[in-house]
Each structure stands twice: as structure tokens, then as C-alpha cells.
């Protein structure tokens, strides 16, 4: 549970001062805390080390309501809660917690009414321990009750979940009441994750389990940093999460069942390491690996609310979204799902499709609760079947002939590259939404055809004249393009124009899986000055003209000094070509692996430029662009050796399998992120992985895989990791005097690269974070684990 810096400031405003919170070894009887300064002896009770505090904190959404809580006391600018007993009933000012004279711990509202009491026998004293556990103890120091035995949503090192114990996630990021997910240590020895209904608490079927059945097993958070399921005889049955490479003496650890249903293992350096501010909680491990795929419930809405679908944000938190034409029931409580922005169709009118259209959304599925199925059926008929059915609110097509109809509301929605289906959502025509490009039109009424309906010949003549007119108009438009000069806007070229500009595609610059690049010259004079690089893409299906043009135009709207600028395109018949500005120094691969080592400062600027270009694609474009094939061959150099990323957007443009191998993996061997092999959700982190590999190649001027080298050096990422762990970075830069003179920056860039090539996407930084680390704005800590 985390509060923002603003709410941490609110704590200070209401006098939660450091001076008023002194360490206590033992809390004596009759001690108390209140939510105001009036009459308060203390505002929080600290552990002896000062690492943990017990007291009141205000809600982030309402500073006049308070939770009794335990939190990490030494984290600057943030308050991360560990435990609270009144999460469902925040208290107003003048509330208090008292260790009564007869040894009872009592939480009371301003009227003195008791809100919570752990019900422990009479205690002699209480203590806030350095483990983060708050205890009530007898005179012989035996524990009568402790917070570790009654957890909320978080567990800490040394804590154990015994049989029958559970933790429950909070409801949302800033709502600390009981949420929609629980983790339970069952009596039969199994560790199980459940979704629960709000507010009733009804328990749906499990969405993750350790599948270990040994009675009296326990979940133990070891001081080594591993959270293990332990049998009664002490053997490890399974590991939930692990961060054993990060010492608990140097890092705070916590395991939290987050509000999105994922159990995450976080660490935080005990010393501030970020320039000008605090460090952040770093995600080390989590379960399940992909909750969007794991969690399907019936009944129930799934990982997200009804009519919404599951995806992930840049921090790998679940990000639920509404389909086109729908909006949140409550934007502050997205788990409540989405509502249509129109009145659903009725069967009363007798014309079910009147006033409605279908919106096509690729890679979206609502996998259960169908009310009808058809096979065989193509996409167009699947779409039309729903449009013509007054009961149907959406239809799903799997691409191989199966079509399903769905009534309102939809459940268990999920969207991602692992989804091979297409959804058609019925929406109102009044929403001004683009209809699907493959919507089947049953009739086409030309002006005047009512009068001529009886004459097939006359209708044919009118249609022919119309087509001739349109063809002449197109020729006229193409003639105008012939006379145009390329400016800042995208131009639509004819195939003949580009054939002439490239001298019949005679001067090949390079070729790859997507197509072949030719050198081109602008204008009929052909002065010999190179102006263009024309990429001739592999053949396309003829029915995606409009979609191709729209995607190209969206790519053409990107402008960044580290991207190759798209100047125009050709979309004629089955020919698809892209026209780029010409990069005179060729590819980074040719420059880097030519046998002559480029200057060190130039390599540094190339790395920084590529990072900034990727950050722009991932985080600064109006629509995120994931490259999917970052490698030196796809980075070009202009006349000043500035790096320019090329071929971005092609993964989306090519649509089907044209950038994939027969295994369904996009990218190039040696640069492909591990998640491609696991059929996991694909995010911008695949580019981060490829970038990390390429940084190592640029640093040490060698390819990632060198089969002719000795075995320990053959794979660059492994060799670099081994040398780094052994403290032999100098061996990597041997013979590179310029780099050897700047080993501080070499090590920084190397550490960034090792973070980028972590196997788990959640451990990799974003490109924004990468850029900050490379530029030295952020100190890189902790040390990256071995990939």
C-alpha cells in the first residue's frame, strides 16, 4: 500500500512529526495515540531501529479519515502500509488507540466506542519490533497476540502464514478496504489465490494454486529473501517468489497481494540512492505470471469488471479498459466495469440493425458465456449475424471459421498478442465511430436507381460510367502527385513514380524479412543526389488498402531526431512501398562490425540517441509503438553519425505473419525477448530487452553471438554478466583505450544493459527509466541480477 508524496505531506501537516515519534522498546500500559495533537503523548510508536511505525495515517482520498496502521517509517516521500485492522472503517479525528490499564489494545472512535480489539489475554506491555511485527506480550515476554498472525495484504521477512490464514488485497490503489482477491494458506497444505465478490465476499473458483497437498504446511518469508511453501518436516515444497540476491540487511522486502490480484515481491534499498530524491520499490518477482490469462471465472467478471478487458500498464500492473463505445460505470472504481454510451438495441422495433453499427477490435476476446455458435462462418458474416440479431451485443471470430454471439454484459475480457480472435462490438451510429472495414453491405442504392430499378442494362451503364469517372479522377490525382515536391507531409505515390525514382529498382541497399530497400532519387531530373530510400514490402492481401494507409499515416505523424522520417508510401493493387529519407552512413551494424572500432564518445551518443528514440515511441507518441525488431541493422546513421531507428511500426503494419518465423516469434535471433517463447503477453519490454543486447554490442564492438570465440565468450550477454559479477569489467574493454579511460560510464551503461536483459519483463526498466539511468540522472541500484 503506497501513499503519494502529497499525502505524506498531509501526515506532517496534522503534526505527525519526527520529534513526536521516538523509539520505544516497550509500550507500557495506559499508553495511547490519537489522530490529533490535543492530549496526545505520542503520534506513533517506532521500532528500536526506527524502521517501522505503529500509529495513525490519513486516507489518501480524505485526510480527515484515518487508519490505524503499521508502515515503513524510513522511506522518504512515501508511506507504504504493512498492516491495518480498520481498513473497512476509517475513523474521524479524535479517534484513539489505547493499551488499557488492564492490558487490552483498544481502537476507539471519538465517542469512546470500541471499533477493534484483537481479543488477546491481558498483556503486560506492547512493542513495535524491528521485524515489522507489533506484539502484545505477557510479563514473561511470551507473545499473546501479534500483527503477523493477523495480516492484511502484506507479509514481511520472518513472517509465516499458518494453515487457515489469508491475506486480502485492497480494493483499488487508493481504497484500502477489502478488495477482490485473497491468498489463502489452506488446511490441506495448498496455497491458493481466489477472486472474491465485492461487497458480499462470495468466493469464486481459484485462479492460481501451488498444487501442493501436505497438511499443516506453512508459507514462510525467509530472511534470505525467498517466500517458500514449507512442509511440516521443513522441506521446501515450492517457492512462491524469490529475491535471494538482495540481502534483507541492505534492502527492505515485502510481499503484497496487490489490488489487481497479483502477489508481488518488492525490495527497497535502505539507503536513498536516487539523486535529489528517494529510491522506489523495485519489483523482483510475482505470481501468477499473467493474470489476464489465468483468471477466468464463471459466474463472475474475470480480472476486470463486466464489459471491460484486461491488459497491462507500463509498470506491469493490470490496466482494465473499456471497448470503443463504452465508458466506466465509475472511473474511480474500474472493477465495477463499463457501461454502453447508448441505449442497447431492442427487439420491439423489428429492425435490429437500424441505428447501430459494428466496431472491429483485433486481439480481443470474451472467452465464455456465449449464447450461440456458428461454423463454418467468415468474419464478415459473423459481424453481420450480430448486427441483424436484436439479442446480440457482440460477436467473436477465431479466424478459422468459428463465430460466437454474446449478450450484454460481457465478462472475462482480455486483449493482447496472445489472443488470436477478433471481437465485433455493437454500438450506436450516433457515436460517430468508424465501422469495421469488412462490414458487409447488403445493398448499394445509386442515385436514381429507384427510377431505373426495372432496367438491369441501364443500371449497368450508370455503374460503368461511375467507375470510368472515378478512374479518371484517380489518374488526375496521380498526375498531380507526379508534379509535387516532397514536403513535410506524407505523399501517396504511384508505383510508376517510385519505379522511375529507383531506376527500375536497380540499386539495392539491403534486404530483410519485411522487404527490400532501394536507393531513390527525387524528381525527373535525376541529378544523382540521393534523396530517398524506398522499401518494397512483401506482398499484402488486396483488401486492406484503407487500413494500410491509415497505419502509414499514423507512423508518418511521428517526429523525432532519432527516428528515420517516413516521407510517403505507395498503396496500389497488391504493391506496398514505403518512402524514407536516405541515411548516407548506412546501418549501425555495418559501422559497428566493420573491424574498425568507432570512437568511444560517438558510441556513447549512439546509445543515448537510440534510447531517446525508443522512449519517444513507447511513451511520448499519441499511440504507443512497439518496434518488435530492435537490432543494429534497423538503426541507420545520418551524415553526422546520429542514430535513427528505422522500420518502427512495421510489426503493426504487416499485421499477419510477415514479420514472424514459423514459430510465431517476431524479431531476430539473439535479440528476441524470452516472453516470445512462453506465449506470454507482449509489451514494450520486448524492445527494452533487444536494446539491452544492442547496448552491449555497441559498448564492446562485437556481435551478441560469436560462434568462433571460445565458449565462455561466445554469448556476449553471459560473458558480460560473468565478468561483471567477478569484478573483471576491464577484461571486456581490453584494447579499447578510450573506454578504459572512462570506466565509470562503461560500468553504468553495462549495468543498464544487464537490467534490460532480465528474463522477467517486470524486472526490466521502461525506456524512460533507461534514459535517465544512462544520462546519470538516476543512480543505478540495486545491482542487476545475472540474466
From TrEMBL:
Molecular function via GO: ATP binding; carbohydrate binding; protein serine kinase activity; protein serine/threonine kinase activity
PROSITE patterns listed in its UniProt record: BULB_LECTIN, PROTEIN_KINASE_DOM, PROTEIN_KINASE_ST
EC annotation from Swiss-Prot or TrEMBL: 2.7.11.1
Membrane topology listed for this record: Single-pass type I membrane protein
Reactions listed under catalytic activity: L-seryl-[protein] + ATP = O-phospho-L-seryl-[protein] + ADP + H(+); L-threonyl-[protein] + ATP = O-phospho-L-threonyl-[protein] + ADP + H(+)
Enzyme class, first EC level, given as a word: transferase
Subcellular localization: Membrane
GO cellular component: membrane
Name of the featured protein: Receptor-like serine/threonine-protein kinase
Species: Dendrobium catenatum
Source organism phylogeny: Eukaryota, Viridiplantae, Streptophyta, Embryophyta, Tracheophyta
Amino acid at each position: 500500500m503506497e501513499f503519494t508524496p502529497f499525502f505524506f505531506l498531509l501526515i506532517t501537516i496534522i503534526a505527525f512529526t519526527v520529534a513526536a515519534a521516538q523509539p520505544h522498546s516497550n509500550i507500557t500500559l495506559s499508553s495511547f495515540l490519537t489522530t490529533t495533537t490535543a492530549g496526545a503523548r505520542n503520534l506513533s510508536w517506532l521500532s528500536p531501529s526506527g524502521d517501522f511505525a505503529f500509529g495513525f495515517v490519513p486516507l489518501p482520498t480524505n485526510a480527515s479519515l484515518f487508519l490505524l496502521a503499521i508502515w515503513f517509517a524510513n522511506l522518504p516521500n512515501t508511506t507504504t502500509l504493512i498492516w491495518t485492522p480498520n481498513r473497512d472503517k476509517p475513523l474521524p479525528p479524535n479517534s484513539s488507540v489505547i493499551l488499557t490499564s488492564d492490558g487490552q489494545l483498544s481502537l476507539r472512535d471519538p465517542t469512546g466506542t470500541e471499533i477493534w480489539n484483537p481479543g488477546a489475554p491481558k498483556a503486560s506491555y506492547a512493542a513495535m519490533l524491528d521485524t515489522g511485527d507489533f506484539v502484545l506480550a505477557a510479563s514473561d515476554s511470551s507473545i499473546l497476540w501479534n500483527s503477523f498472525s493477523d495480516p492484511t495484504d502484506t507479509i514481511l521477512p520472518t513472517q509465516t502464514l499458518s494453515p487457515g490464514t489469508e491475506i486480502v488485497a485492497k480494493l483499488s490503489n487508493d481504497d484500502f478496504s477489502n478488495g477482490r482477491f485473497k491468498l489463502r494458506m489452506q488446511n490441506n497444505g495448498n496455497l491458493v489465490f481466489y477472486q472474491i465478490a465485492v461487497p458480499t465476499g462470495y468466493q469464486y473458483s481459484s485462479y492460481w494454486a501451488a498444487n501442493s497437498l501436505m497438511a499443516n504446511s506453512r508459507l514462510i518469508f525467509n530472511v534470505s529473501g525467498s517466500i517458500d511453501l514449507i512442509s511440516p518436516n521443513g522441506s521446501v515444497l515450492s517457492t512462491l517468489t524469490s529475491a535471494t540476491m538482495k540481502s534483507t540487511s541492505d534492502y527492505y522486502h515485502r510481499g503484497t497481494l496487490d489490488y489487481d490480484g497479483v502477489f508481488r515481491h518488492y525490495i527497497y534499498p535502505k539507503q536513498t540512492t536516487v539523486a535529489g530524491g528517494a529510491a522506489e520499490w523495485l519489483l523482483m518477482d510475482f505470481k501468477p505470471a499473467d493474470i489476464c490469462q489465468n483468471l477466468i471465472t464463471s459466474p463472475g467478471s474475470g480480472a476486470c469488471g463486466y464489459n471491460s478487458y484486461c491488459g497491462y500498464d507500463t509498470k506491469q500492473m493490470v490496466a482494465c479498459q473499456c471497448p470503443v463505445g463504452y465508458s466506466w460505470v465509475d472511473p474511480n472504481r474500474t472493477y465495477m466495469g463499463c457501461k454502453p454510451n447508448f441505449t442497447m438495441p431492442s427487439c420491439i422495433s423489428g429492425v435490429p440493425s437500424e441505428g447501430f453499427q459494428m466496431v472491429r477490435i483485433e486481439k480481443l476476446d470474451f472467452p465464455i458465456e456465449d449464447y450461440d455458435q456458428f461454423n463454418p462462418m467468415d468474419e464478415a458474416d459473423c459481424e453481420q449475424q450480430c448486427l441483424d440479431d436484436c439479442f446480440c451485443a457482440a460477436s467473436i471470430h477465431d479466424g478459422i471459421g468459428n463465430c460466437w454471439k454474446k449478450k450484454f454484459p460481457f465478462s472475462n475480457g482480455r486483449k493482447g498478442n496472445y489472443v488470436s480472435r477478433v471481437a465485433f462490438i455493437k454500438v450506436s451510429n450516433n457515436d460517430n465511430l468508424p465501422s469495421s472495414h469488412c462490414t458487409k453491405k447488403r445493398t448499394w442504392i445509386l442515385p436514381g436507381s429507384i427510377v431505373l430499378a426495372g432496367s438491369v442494362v441501364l443500371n449497368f451503364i450508370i455503374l460503368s460510367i461511375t467507375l470510368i469517372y472515378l478512374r479518371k479522377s484517380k489518374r488526375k490525382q496521380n498526375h498531380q502527385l507526379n508534379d509535387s515536391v516532397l514536403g513535410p507531409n506524407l505523399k501517396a505515390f504511384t508505383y510508376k513514380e517510385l519505379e522511375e525514382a529507383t531506376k527500375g529498382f536497380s540499386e539495392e541497399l539491403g534486404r530483410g524479412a519485411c522487404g527490400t530497400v532501394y536507393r531513390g532519387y527525387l524528381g525527373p531530373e535525376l541529378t544523382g543526389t540521393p534523396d530517398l530510400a524506398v522499401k518494397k514490402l512483401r506482398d499484402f492481401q488486396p483488401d486492406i488498402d484503407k487500413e494500410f494507409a491509415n497505419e502509414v499515416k499514423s507512423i508518418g505523424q511521428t517526429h523525432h531526431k532519432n527516428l528515420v522520417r517516413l516521407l510517403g508510401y505507395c498503396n496500389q493493387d497488391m504493391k506496398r512501398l514505403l518512402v524514407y529519407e536516405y541515411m548516407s552512413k548506412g546501418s549501425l551494424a555495418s559501422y559497428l562490425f566493420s573491424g574498425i572500432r568507432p570512437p568511444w564518445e560517438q558510441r556513447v551518443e549512439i546509445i543515448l540517441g537510440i534510447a531517446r528514440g525508443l522512449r519517444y515511441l513507447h511513451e511520448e507518441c499519441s499511440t504507443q509503438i512497439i518496434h518488435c525488431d530492435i537490432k543494429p541493422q534497423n538503426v541507420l546513421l545520418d551524415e553526422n553519425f546520429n542514430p535513427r531507428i528505422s522500420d518502427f511500426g512495421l510489426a503493426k503494419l504487416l499485421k499477419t505473419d510477415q514479420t514472424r518465423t514459423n514459430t510465431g516469434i517476431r524479431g531476430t535471433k539473439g535479440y528476441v525477448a524470452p516472453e516470445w517463447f512462453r506465449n506470454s503477453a507482449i509489451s514494450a519490454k520486448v524492445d527494452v530487452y533487444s536494446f539491452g543486447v544492442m547496448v552491449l554490442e555497441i559498448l564492446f564492438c562485437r556481435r551478441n553471438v560469436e560462434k568462433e570465440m571460445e565458449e565462455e565468450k561466445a554469448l556476449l550477454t553471459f560473458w558480460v554478466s560473468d565478468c561483471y559479477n567477478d569484478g573483471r569489467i576491464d577484461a571486456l574493454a581490453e584494447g579499447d583505450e578510450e573506454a578504459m579511460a572512462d570506466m565509470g560510464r562503461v560500468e553504468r551503461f553495462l549495468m543498464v544493459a544487464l537490467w534490460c536483459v532480465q528474463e522477467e519483463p517486470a524486472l526490466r526498466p521502461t525506456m524512460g527509466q533507461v534514459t535517465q539511468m544512462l544520462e546519470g540522472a538516476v543512480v543505478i541500484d540495486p545491482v542487476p541480477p545475472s540474466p
